[in-house]
Specification:
two-stranded antiparallel sheet, 4 helices
Length: 103
């Protein structure tokens, strides 16, 4: 495995772990601190009830978008590094997207 692929895989593992840890923290934190957060109201509902019914889902969706944005960024970076290491011309990422869409 090339150094670029190893570095890419390491970054992928780190961001996956961080996103998973945030998801578990959100879930655990909402349940664990529910009694102390009960005095807070959010849109007319007790905060733990709101988080359990809708808030956590919104945060999970936000985590998925964060993961997608970060992965898109590192894929572009490592795709370009891989192209340079193979001696191919440096193709613009947008051009690459258009080429894949035409197939």
């Amino acid at each position: 495995m090339s150094d670029h692929k190893r570095e890419y895989w390491k970054k992928t593992q780190v961001i996956t772990f961080v996103i998973a840890a945030l998801g578990m923290g959100i879930t655990f934190g909402t349940m664990f601190f529910a009694s102390s957060l009960k005095s807070i109201t959010f849109f007319g509902w007790d905060f733990p009830f709101y988080m359990g019914s809708q808030g956590n889902l919104l945060l999970y969706v936000a985590l998925v978008f964060m993961y997608q944005k970060y992965m898109d960024k590192i894929e572009k970076e490592y795709w370009q590094k891989e192209q340079k290491s193979q001696g191919e011309s440096n193709i613009n990422w947008d051009e690459k997207d258009n080429q894949e869409g035409d197939e």
